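Issue: copy button drops trailing tokens. Both records pasted manually instead:
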Amino acid sequence: MAETTDFHDELDALARELEEAIFEFDAALERHARVRQGAQSPSLNPHSVEFDDVQELFF
């Protein structure tokens, strides 16, 4: 009976580790998606000529 309990405890520990690994992987995928979205979103580089042109319009 003790062997069965030990085995179940080991399985529970493994399941927790797998669950944590899945959560970490999911978080990494979400970070990657945000970075990728940011790379696709147009933005003005503060060192570009276009940025200077836009600043002149408002200031």
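Record 2 (pasted manually too):
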Amino acid sequence: MGIDTYLTVAFWLGILGLLIRSSQVIGKHPRKVEHEVGGDVFGLLIAIAFFVWVCFLKFGG
């Protein structure tokens, strides 16, 4: 159990997070609970940045 295990878990959770975030952006708006599309897009961009960083650490250098 080391950093590779952490990166593997973060990689798969990143894929799951990207799928969930993109479905929120693509989904029906407006939703019953007040959410702005900009907030959903910002969350998606943060998820993409984290996923790219994890991929760089796991597969890159």
